[in-house]
Amino acid sequence: MPDLAEQDDRWPVGAPAQRAGLLPAPITAVDPKVLVVTGPSGVGKGTLIRTLRERVPGLELSVSATTRAPRPGEADGVDYHFLASPEFDERLAAGQFIEHAEYAGNRYGTLRSEIDRARGARALLLEIEVQGARQVREALPGAVQVFIAPPSDEALRTRLIGRGSDAPDQIERRLAVAREELEAREEFEHVIVNDRLEDAADELVELVATMCGE
Asked: Under DSSP, is residue 120 helix (H, G, I), strand (E, B) or coil?
């Protein structure tokens, strides 16, 4: 069974923000370098990123902003930047987001201040969904993007069922969204199939070394 990580309860809805005119002009030169790790929910993005950071020092992980309430044990500024909806809207109108989207009635996004926070790091990692990755492609043309894919639909289904936290209809909905997102893999220059964790992590480490000129 592939080692796939648990993801947040987020469902993509609505149009990309760029079409709504809510994203500012692209940033053409970025310090630090930015690696966007994307793919369907449940594919193992989180596990791969944790393994990558254990093996490669100096990598910063972007902290997303959200309007959802904190879960037990979550800390503001560590797990997420927890924002009330009015503050999220204000920051969005002020052009403070690189990307944003709505999932399951909650808003999520990456603040531009995360780039400032990570200055001096070897690279900044963004773990986001496909919709957000498309926005980052426009906002940060120099960012490297990698799509994490499951070895099969069945492997993804087994992982989602194994969580034990979703009802059957929720699992089917997740799989339906995942299938749509898998169709986007051809948009990405780099694709890693997360069949065996160590093999996928090796590929990710190599990609970081290449983008950092090492």
From this structure: coil
Give tens-digit pLDDT for 9-24. Answer: 444 444 344 434 454 5
Count of positions (residues) in the chain: 214
Residues pairing with 97 in the sheet:
111
52: three-class secondary structure by DSSP: helix
Q: Say how far apart CA 195 and CA 161 lie, in whole Å.
A: 17
Give CA–CA dist 166/148, Å, rounded: 22
Q: Are 112 and 18 in contact (CB under 8 A)?
A: no
Please list, residue by residue across 43-60, b when 16 or more beta carbons sit within 10 angstroms of its beta carbon and e when fewer do. bbbbbbbebbeeebeebb
C-alpha to C-alpha distance for 181 and 93, rounded to whole angstroms: 28
Look up the pTM and report it: 0.81
- Tokens (6 digits) for 189: 């220059």
How many secondary structure helices (H) and strands (E) does the chain include?
Answer: 7, 10
Distance between CA atoms of residues 132 and 89, nearest Å: 17
> Which residue type sits at 7?
Q
Other Cβ atoms within 10 Å of 107 Cβ, number: 19
Query: How confident is the model over 95-114, as pLDDT tens digits?
Result: 999 999 887 678 999 999 99
What is the model's pLDDT at position 190?
Answer: 97
Q: Strand 59-61's sheet: what is its strand order?
A: 59-61, 123-127, 33-38, 144-149, 190-193
